[in-house]
From TrEMBL:
Membrane topology: Multi-pass membrane protein
The keyword Hydrolase appears for this protein: no
Annotated InterPro entries: Fatty_acid_hydroxylase, Scs7
Lineage of producing organism: Bacteria, Bacillati, Bacillota, Bacilli, Bacillales
A Pfam family it matches: FA_hydroxylase
Main location: endoplasmic reticulum
Species annotation: Paenibacillus motobuensis
Cofactor: Zn(2+)
Keywords: Endoplasmic reticulum, Fatty acid biosynthesis, Fatty acid metabolism, Lipid biosynthesis, Lipid metabolism, Membrane, Metal-binding, Oxidoreductase, Transmembrane, Transmembrane helix, Zinc
Protein known as: Sterol desaturase family protein
């Protein structure tokens, strides 16, 4: 891994701010890690984001092209434009205006369930940690970098199938568990080439 790519990742504003939020929050959490509850909440937060990675990608980011100009603009920034320009660094990461409100909602739900600030903080730290892992894997998939492990190289290849072969398969970026479970993982040799993988707005257009 060339240092310039590590620097490129961690100095990108959205990533740098999210890392700072995690470090501050985890710093406050450390004194409470002597009990098992916060560790369980941390793992649940990571698992929750792993599930969200798939379901949001499939059912929100690939929703049928909205006619409302405002929602279309949002989706273009969140995902449609990323398919059009998959290697554009400024379209690669989730913007803070999307991530932070969603984390606030998740944190409010965690607090309503647990009535504990410590458990809530641990849950949110788990969410942020997996978000950063997701962003790193996504970054590696789209930069001229060869992952170190066979697993990493395979996941990069699978993600690029989603972009360049068919946008209706391979939604998982960090893992294929939900793709296998929900029928969106196929051998790419058996999947037809989609004419709209690079232009999600044109799905449903007979001329696409």
């Amino acid at each position: 891994m060339k240092p310039k790519y590590v620097k490129e990742f961690f100095l990108f504003p959205d990533i740098a701010i999210m890392c700072l939020i995690f470090l501050i929050s985890f710093g406050f959490l450390i004194p409470n890690l002597t009990s098992v509850g916060p560790w369980i909440a941390l793992v649940i937060g990571m698992a929750a984001y792993s599930a969200a990675e798939y379901f949001i990608h499939r059912f929100l980011f690939h929703i049928k092209t909205p006619k409302n100009p405002f929602f279309l603009k949002l989706l273009k920034r969140l995902h449609y434009d990323h398919h059009a320009s998959p290697n554009d660094l400024h379209l690669l990461f989730l913007p803070l205006w999307y991530s932070l409100p969603n984390m606030a909602i998740a944190g409010a739900a965690a607090y309503l369930i647990s009535s504990s600030l410590v458990i809530t903080m641990a849950f949110i730290d788990g969410v942020i940690l997996f978000l950063l892992f997701y962003e790193w894997k996504h970054f590696i998939a789209h930069r001229p970098v060869t992952p170190l492990s066979p697993w990493g190289r395979w996941m990069k290849k699978v993600h690029l199938w989603h972009h360049f072969k068919n946008e209706n398969y391979w939604y998982g970026v960090t893992n294929p568990i939900f793709d296998f479970a929900l029928g969106t993982f196929e051998d790419q040799k058996n999947v037809e080439l989609s004419q709209t993988a690079r232009n999600l707005e044109q799905r449903g257009n007979k001329n696409a």
